[in-house]
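User:
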Amino acid sequence: MYTRRLKLACMIVLAALFLISCLARAHADEVVTLYTTDSDSAESDRLASLGDFVAWKMGATRLKEIALYTTEDYEVSAGGSQTKVQGSEVSASIFDVLNIRPMLGRGFMPKDWSESESAVAILSYELWQTTFHGDAAVIGKIVSVDSKELTVVGVMPKAMDVMGLGTILTPFFPRSFAGGGYERVFHVIASLKPGVTIADAQADLDLLDQKRHRDEPHYLRGLKTRVAYIKHL
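Assistant: Predicted structure:
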């Protein structure tokens, strides 16, 4: 009897996770990437600076939510095994932009962006399966990331694996950047307000560009903001 109940509970959980994955995937086409480019930029060079992010967050009127992240190569050690993975440091609004929540555990909380309490990580579905063998008890376990011990607080649904965020997420902390925050090293994503098309968003950002070229000495004249659906990444 206990075994039957356990199997039924597992089937219900799997069905719920599948539904969450489908809902998240349906939302993917509504998410855009923002970047700056000039005549010398390669098509694949879709990056932005911290200064760009702040300007868009404060001045773009047709964006609902905006977030940034950086990609990093990490060496992850857990359960006696080591693996090299790509991960991301993410800003606080990342899950609101993607409209995706962890299927296990929790997302990042305000306290996680405090330097003294930042030793937490969220796993992708892929890393959870390959390194932790889909163990539901992974929440609360310690994983070594580049020799720093982090506590696993969440696991994301499979749908997030196609978003390009890597296999392990940690909170992003602004640091001192060369050029006063105008170094283009970030990925920026955003969700549009209801009814706003990508053409509407581009027109809004074009106007913001004009203002920035007029008011910001460090915003190079040749740079222009571009917006594209994230599915094109």
